[in-house]
## 1
Amino acid sequence: MKTTLILLLAAAAGAAGHAATYQFDPLHTNVTFEIDHVISTNRGRFDRKEGVVEFDPQARTGSVSLTLDMSSISTSAPPFTRSLQSRDFFNVEQFPTARFVGDNFVFDGDRVVEVNGNLTMVGRTHPVKLKAIRFACVHNAMLQREVCGGDFEATVNRSAWGIDWGLPRFPDSVRLLLQVEAIRQ
């Protein structure tokens, strides 16, 4: 009986395809943003983030969860950083994290071209489409494990999350850029 159960479980696992869990590598994952500022571009980043990806390339399915520590926002100008952390923008004291949860991977053949999900920040949730600029899974010789990752981008309107300080003087649209590498667990 015990042997039969083990064989059934092994067969079920093999039938499930090549689904795997990947943990974001914080040393090779970056989340940045860009917003126009009169005659130039302001840029910033989130220094603390964590996430996990469930990915099955054979079934062409996946899910991703990315959490940002909003107090880790950083720009090249400390007064701007403090302003972004204030109630005028991300209200970090009341909303210490932001989270993207995507459950729809879009493929073109074998290639991931988009991840659709919801971004929750400042107490509001709205859909976001992350366009895959590039995406691949490779064997990492140093780690002796598979690593999947790529570059993703989206443009969102900050006013959808109630971040409307400075409108219309400063633009509503913000470009999000994600560089992700995730290690198979």
## 2
Amino acid sequence: MSTALLLAEPELDTRVFLERHLKNDGFRVVDGQAQPDLVLLGDTDALDEYRARHGDVPVIVLGEAESDAVDRVRALDRGCDDFLVRPFDYEELLARIRAVLRRTMPAAHETLRAGPITADLATRCVKVDGLSVALAGKEYELLVKLMSDPTRVFTKESLLRDVWGFRSLGRTRTLDSHASRLRRKLSAAAPGAFVINVWGVGYGLLDG
């Protein structure tokens, strides 16, 4: 079955244009009653509403022309998976859609394990000692990155680049706030030291 995209775009001309081209590229454009595989969101303020309605579905925000780096960081902090400023090139949008889907829809039943933590990459289900742990989108992606080499200390720069797509570290607390929430949720499920902060370097998952 083709990938289902929810096109939550308020501008009629843009919506008609995108719907036509996305269908030509093999996507299934659905309405708000269906469960989508990805949401294209034209209004950042509606992010929480769509998360509440559709759960941890990947979201790409189509930002206004006057959007700046602060708007992008705030949207990413709130849980969107990518942010593209208008006017945008359709081919770039298509590439970003495919990149997000590659990250969020891996092969069925591929599972990562690190200590007591397991992550089913098909269902995005995370368990610690058999107990399910509910994670937001970027918390999950951060966990999967750390699980790829659980005793390694990843630099902040590499995590911001690989998980959030940031090109430079800048002055953002995005990583620290997500790491703190992830640590708290994992530790609530089972005792242990998770998401280790190595001051001046970055983060690792397990204390090696």
## 3
Amino acid sequence: MQITCISASNTKLLGDKSTSTRVCALIGDIICKKYGSDISINILPLVDFNLTSCILCGECSTSSNCIYDSDFNNLYTQILKSDAIFLVVPHYSPIPSKLMILFEKLNELAYAGWLKNPDFASPLSNIPVGIIGHGGCPEDNNILKQYHDNLVAPVARTLNALSLNVVSYNDEYPYGVTFGLKDNNCLIQTDNSIFPDILQDFEMIEDRIKPLVFNVVNRALSCESIKQ
């Protein structure tokens, strides 16, 4: 089984030290501890892909990829190999720009395929997806709800429209899980940048996201057993 963890952060200066990418690694650790090493974890930071916006040329209706964007094709090929997906999304804009480009092209692939063949079935259909949203505010219930409703929920609706299977966190947060900063002490001002250094409590984050990780992996395992 292969599980893909996509970091939607575009904080290039932080690279693999960005919170989103570190959470992808944390998901891998959680899965290995619970399920063993038979599950392969593939981490895809979108910052590493030079994605270009869709120009609605329609060529993907015959090529099933983007003739202008080899980085998208590479990313899409890896996504197609997934038995389950985790998407870790930071709240520094309504939806990060590279994630929007990814959604745009996945949608056009599906739409062009349907226009060419009304019986078209997306190759992404029913792949389980877990969404983790996070931001840079000290968390309370209102902040967590805001991240869920304004970030995670729109992402979830987009994925559902693309035929993926968004897995619920719980009744209160049906579209995914969110986290913020533990408290104000997690923001450290520096002289080098307008942006503060952020100290994340990864033990808190691990405890928070575990239920969703287990829900997604169990859903994927259930789908695999049905196929067999």
## 4
Amino acid sequence: MNEEKAASHPFAETTISTQPVFSGRMISLEISTVRLPDGRTATREIVRHPGAVGVLALHGGRMIAVEQYRKPLERVQLEIPAGKLDPGESPEAAALRELEEETGFRAGSVRHLLSFSTSPGFADEVLHLYFTDDVTPGGQRPDEDEFLSVELLTPEEAERALRDGRICDAKTMLALYAWKLYRLSGALTP
């Protein structure tokens, strides 16, 4: 829905004021006072995020995944390569960059599958999911504060990791379903 239509929707909330609370390296937090459709006011805590990408990358019929520690969850988990957009960077360029930095695999091309809101109840982050099976191995170049290992998973290993809870994030789950659809029908999206 475009912004003009959203603003005229009967459930639309009108922002009265916004107070910045925190601005960090990856996110910012603000509290907005809004007017509700019935005229009352409420507050909304909103996390602002520059957007992110994830890449379903296949090499030799296996999914390229990274294992890393996720502090908010206090656990290690297995995910598709992913990361935030840099200022002025296109999602496609970010997908190519993140894949190579995190895994060492360089993609000749990527294909956009879909974009989705990760947590629309409190955050404006949109994640762009890409696909590639056109990769060449190379050397990893993770960020200085990233510690991760690369795994190449068969479909059965990926499904087992999902059942075992090693994979528990939405972007990787969506990538697994796209991969399953691809294996069954040759299409990546319905």
